[in-house]
Amino acid sequence: MVKITDVARRAGVSPSTVSYALSGKRPISEETRRRVEEAARALGYRPHAGARALASSRSNVLALVVPLRAGIHVPVVMQFAVSVVTAARRHDHDVLLLTQEEGEEGLRRVADTALVDALILMDVQLHDPRLPLLRSLDRPSVMIGFPLEADGLTCIDLDFRAAGERCVEHLAQLGHRVVALVGSPPEVYVRGTAFAQRVVQGFTAAADRAGLASAVHPCEATPAAARRVAERLLREQPALTGVVVHNEAVLEPLVDAFEQLGLRVPGDLSVTAICPDELAAGLRVPVTSIALPSAEVGERAVELLMRKLDGETVPEATLLPPTMTRRASTAPRTVSPR
Question: Which of 39, 91, 105, 285 is the most exposed place for a label (fewest CB within 10 A)?
Fold first, then answer.
């Protein structure tokens, strides 16, 4: 096992200098710090976790609060979680995953112990009941999502409003005049989940600006519900030629349902989605989509926390612009009898 004395010998410094350089407890010249870090990497030296925590008064653990509520699409949530864990390990931190309904009591329980140094919260609601407590904690935090009142908080996410707008703008540029949003399960909207609400806001605003006829339909995350929504859309909007899907679980069954009802994609109906790239690209008809940047969001959330733990000032709001990839599911509108 490599010891601190081995690192000191290779770097040509004392063991105490190695300790100071790696812990940051005392100022060390940049050149010395670089020599120590290079020696530690070359030898594969890793400070003992318990000793490091005692020396720094930190646990080197982050809490990731991911309430697995009804309507949550778990595979996508886990992409964010994996990204957070991977980024945290690069900073020599572990992650405590809290998957139950952690309201104020749960956050207080975790924050009042020495279990974690900081918190990342997901599934943010517009009127999130956790905000007053979050503002009062002595632990830094980052929210993946934007509540309605975000003053004094650090938030990061995809700009979901802009994503909804971009999908509609793409359809409008292709000549589509009647569009619909097939959204998240109803309970997601009932909770006031921020990202889902903002997609609706962007979709509606862009449709109104372009003078399009539009409708919003929440959809349960089942193939049967996708079929019912497809039938309802064609009954209520017979001139429909453009659809935006913000519900990963029903994207494929919805496309199948439309085609079973006699609509060719994209010949009769153009479909766009806000979803992971691998899902959109892997369908029988690859879908034009705006990607969910889970890897970037998770990594940057951890970076913001690390900077806050180091006493740095960080931006309160980080909105990632949407990126659309055009695929085979969208085409210029054609007028054909149904």
Answer: 105
Among 110, 101, 103, smallest CA distance to 132 is for 103
**What is the model's pLDDT at position 334?**
82
First-to-last alpha carbon distance for the chain, in angstroms, is 74
Q: Which residues pair with 121 in a beta bridge?
A: 65, 143
Placement of tokens 């309201």 in the chain: 103
Angle between helices 223-236 and 251-260 (to 10 degrees): 50
The separation between CA 329 and the C-alpha centre of its own chain, rounded to angstroms, equals 25
Cβ 222 vs Cβ 187: under 8 Å? no
Q: For the full predicted model, state whether its pTM sits above 0.85.
A: no
**CA 308/CA 58 separation, integer angstroms:** 14
Q: Which residues pair with 324 in a beta bridge?
A: 290
- Residues of the chain with pLDDT below 50 are 50-56, 337
Q: 15-68: per-residue pLDDT in tens?
A: 878 877 876 656 778 888 889 889 988 988 876 554 444 444 567 899 998 877
Q: Which two tokens stand for residue 166?
A: 């971009």
Predicted local distance difference test score (pLDDT) of residue 54: 41
Residue of 249, 248, 252, 255 lying closest to 233 (CA atoms)? 255
Contact by Cβ (8 Å): 113, 119: no
